[in-house]
Amino acid sequence: MIGRVAAVAVIGLASACAPGGEIGDRMMTSHPSADQHYYPSATDGEGQGNPWIVILPGGGGIEVFGDTEFYFDVARHWNSRGLDALVVHYQEAAPILGIESEGIPGPMEAKVVRDALASAEREGWLDLQCPGFVIGFSAGGSGVLSLVNDPVPNLVGAIGYYPLVLGQPEDFTAQVPMLVLQGEADDLTTPEALDSFLQTATPQENFIVHRYEGAEHGFDIPSLAKPVEYNGGVFLYEEEAAKAAGREANAFVAHLLADRGTPDCGGS
After folding, report:
1. What's the rounded mean pLDDT across residues 241-258?
2. What is the pLDDT of residues 17-40, one digit of tens each?
3. How far apart are CA 252 and CA 178, in angstroms?
4. Does 185 reside within a domain?
5. Cβ atoms of 139 and 158 closer than 8 Å
6. Global pTM?
7. Residue range 216-244: average pLDDT?
8. d(CA 74, CA 39)
C-alpha cells in the first residue's frame, strides 16, 4: 500500500512541460512569480458579482500528454455558465512560494490556492464575496479534499473528478458538499480507494458520488481518444461518461447557487 501511495503521489508532483503561446510567454520572465502560474478567465458579462471556481489540474499540471487546452476549456465552460474561473498551476507555483509537499499533495495544493485567491482579490480577477467552488482532477482532487476539510471563505461546494483520496485523515470532515465523479475501471485513483475513504469520512450526506461503469482515468478528456498507459494505469476518454459527469457537475453547481442571491456580492 505504501508503494501505491508513493506511486500515485508522484502523479501529483510531476512537472508539466512548458506550454506554448501566451501561456508560455507569461512563464518566460527574469523574475519568477507565483502569479504567472495563476490563469484567470472571466465570464463575458461586465463588472463583478459572479460566482467563482478554482480549477486544480491533475499530476501533469496544465498539460495532459501534450494537450495544453483541456483545463482552459474547463475554465471556458464554467465561464459560459456564469462563473469566473481561475486555473491554478500549483506544481509551478509551489516552489516559488517555498511550499513543499510532504506525503500527499493536498495540503500543498490548498496552500497554493490560498495564495492564488489572495492574488485574485488583489488583482480583481474574482469577487471572493460571491459563492465559490473548487474543482480538481486526479491529484488535483487531493487539494480539493483539503479545501473541503478546511474551506476558504465563501467556498460553497467542490467537485472531484476521479480524485486522489489516499492519505486523507481518518477523521476527515467535509465542511462543504462535494460531488465525486468516479470511473469504475480506473486503476490509478481506484473506486476501491474511494470506497475506503468514504467509509470513515463524515458527514456522509455531504458526499454525492456518481460512478461510471467501464470508465478509465481521464474519461472526461477528449484528447485521450486513444488509450495512454502511464504509471501502471490507463488514461482513456469515454464520451458517454464524460457527458453524464458534465451534466452532474452543472446540476450540482446550479443547485447550490439556486437559493443564493449574488447581485454585486462584494461590489466594486
Report:
1. 98
2. 334 444 445 545 557 899 999 999
3. 9
4. yes
5. no
6. 0.89
7. 98
8. 12
Examine residue 29 and state whether it is found in any structural domain, yes or no.
Answer: no
- CATH classification at residue 130: 3.40.50.1820
Instruction: Give the residue numbers spanning the domain of 200.
Output: 2-13+34-258
CA-based radius of gyration for the chain: 17
Q: How many domains is the chain built from?
A: 1
Backbone φ/ψ region at 30: left (φ over 0), alpha (ψ -120 to 50), beta: alpha
Residue 8 lies in a domain: yes
**Rounded Cα gap, residues 43 and 52, in angstroms:** 10
The neighbouring-strand residues paired with 84 are 52
Q: Which amino acid is at 215?
A: A
Higher pLDDT pick, 266 / 60: 60
pLDDT per position as a tens digit, 69-121: 999 999 999 999 999 999 999 999 999 999 998 889 999 999 999 999 999 99
Tell me how far apart the alpha carbons of residues 92 and 255 are, in angstroms, rounded to a whole number. Answer: 34
pLDDT digits (tens, 9 = 90+) for 5-18: 334 443 444 333 33
